[in-house]
Specification:
This protein has a domain of 62 residues. The protein is flat, with a radius of gyration of 19 Å. The chain contains three helices and two strands; from the N terminus they run βααβα. A two-stranded antiparallel ribbon has the order 1-2. 65% of the residues lie in helices and 4% in strands.
Length: 105
């Protein structure tokens, strides 16, 4: 681990052709992210409030599961975050702020 990463000690898993716990968990996380995207679209296109409420309830469950899986992967050291310095954050803010202001033109 270098000083620019935020992570836990990595739990080693078997390597090779067979799937391991990390592979299954990573696949599950990817599926949950895709499902969340799809339910977001479904909610924005719901034809009535009752249908929207059903989609929203399912969406809330999916994003809760997604968060739990992410936290599990982070605890096991399978998900590494990058530290961002103040300059990088300010640069991103300025870029997004410029793009936002350009929307008014």
């Amino acid at each position: 681990m270098n000083n620019n990463e935020i992570c836990n000690t990595k739990v080693e898993v078997a390597s090779g052709i067979n799937l391991n716990e990390k592979d299954y968990t990573n696949t599950l996380l990817s599926c949950l992210k895709e499902m969340a995207r799809n339910y977001t679209i479904a909610m924005t296109e719901a034809s009535n409030e009752s249908l929207y409420d059903v989609y929203k309830h399912i969406f809330d469950n999916i994003i809760s599961l997604q968060r739990e899986v992410y936290q599990l992967m982070f605890r096991k050291g399978w998900y590494v975050l990058e530290k961002s310095g103040v300059n990088k954050i300010n640069d991103k803010f300025n870029t997004l702020n410029t793009e936002y202001n350009d929307l008014d033109k």
